[in-house]
Write a structure and sequence with these properties.
Elements lengths: L3 E3 L8 H4 L1 H9 L8 E4 L1 H10 L8 H18 L6 E8 L15 E6 L1 H14 L3 H10 L6 E7 L5 E6 L10 E8 L3 H4 L6 E6 L4 E5 L5 E5 L4 E5 L2 H4 L6 H18 L3 E8 L2 E9 L6
Antiparallel strand pairs: 1-2, 2-5, 3-4, 3-5, 6-7, 6-12, 7-8, 8-9, 10-11, 12-13
Helix pairs in contact: 4-5
Length: 287
């Protein structure tokens, strides 16, 4: 098993190699608009545990490989500037049918520069030792497992959305649920703000809209992110246009068909472009 895989290359769709989050995105990278990136493998994590000293240290060969990949990611953009990336943990059994690990492992946004990227990778690996991770694994009856790290070009979202191809609240398989807010998706997944909600009826895709308070939004800061109030004029109107709602619903249906299971996806609109940021099974419903 290699230490590093690019999204979309052979072997990068194997959860045992790069973890569930990275593997799912790699599987979809050729057919969907997935931001480019690379993943440090679970095998690299195992070597880091054996050889590194301290939470901020990476073995020299792993650091060199990650630094070279980060430089290539920037070069592929063609702007001459360093890439701005999201660095996310990707455990072997994460985003699987049995467990999502949502919010348990580390995610770092708006990371720029070789040193910052290497520190973020080390932080993701160190997060595997967090007591919350051990407690979650015990609650699911899961053994310890390796952790990959996904380094991916960051989408500076105008609007972000979390979409379920089945309704996770009532288990309805004929309803798509879209939660959306201005800015980055962290305000939605963290529960920081009450998002706008669309319940989209399958198969004709007729939406029912519920305006959310959208109290705050997450935006890029000089480093990392910060939360700011949403302007009152924006709170009082939907954050998505009708055409965007339909595009998200159609994306959820297409992904459900391709993956073979009901999907929980994270997406972002930057201008008119829709990006797929995450795709995992819906792991729980309340009936």
């Amino acid at each position: 098993m290699k230490d590093l895989y690019w999204l979309g290359e052979p072997g990068a769709d194997d959860p045992a190699a790069v973890g569930g989050k990275a593997a799912n995105l790699s599987r979809l990278a050729a057919a969907y608009t997935v931001p480019p990136g690379f993943a440090l493998s679970a095998a690299a994590h195992a070597r880091r545990i054996e050889g590194a000293e301290g939470a901020e240290a990476l073995p020299e060969d792993l650091a060199s490989a990650a630094a070279a990949a980060y430089a290539e990611l920037g070069a592929r953009r063609g702007s001459g500037a360093e890439a701005v990336v999201a660095v996310r943990s990707s455990a072997i059994d994460e985003d699987s049918a049995g467990a999502s690990f949502a919010g348990i492992y580390t995610t770092l946004l708006n990371v720029r520069g070789e040193g910052a990227v290497l520190r973020a990778i080390a932080s993701c690996w160190a997060s595997a030792e967090d007591p919350r991770v051990a407690a979650y694994r015990r609650s699911k009856g899961l053994p310890d497992a390796g952790v990959g790290v996904l380094v991916q070009e960051l989408v500076a979202a105008d609007v972000a959305a979390v979409v379920f191809s089945n309704n996770p609240t009532n288990g309805a398989v004929d309803e798509i649920v879209i939660n959306a807010n201005f800015g980055l998706g962290e305000s939605i997944v963290s529960g920081l703000a009450t998002p706008d909600t669309w319940i989209v009826q399958r198969p004709d895709l007729q939406p029912r809209f519920v305006l959310g308070a959208k109290e705050k939004m997450t935006i890029l800061a000089d480093e990392g992110t910060r939360e700011v109030p949403v302007l009152r004029t924006l709170r009082d109107r939907p954050c998505l246009a009708d055409v965007q709602v339909r595009a998200l619903a159609e994306l959820a249906l297409r992904l459900e068909a391709d993956m073979g299971w009901p999907v929980d996806i994270e997406c972002a609109f930057q201008g008119e472009q829709l990006y797929l940021l995450q795709c995992r099974p819906i792991t729980a419903t309340r009936r």
